[in-house]
Amino acid sequence: MVSTRHHPREFPPAVLGASPTKSPAKSSRTSTSSPTPSSPATPSKSLTKRALTNSIAASPSSPPAAVWAHTASNVTVAWILVSLPVVVWDALYCLLRPHTMAGGALQWPLWKPYELYASIDYVYGWPAWEARDGFTAAQAWLNMVEVIGYGLYITILYDHGASAAGGRGLQFGHGVEGWFAGGRRVQGRQASRAVVIAFVASVMTASKTVLYFLNEACSGFKNVRHNEWVVLVPLYIATNGIWLVMSSYMTYVFGAEIIEGLDAASGVNSKKDQ
Question: Model pTM?
Answer without folding.
Answer: 0.71
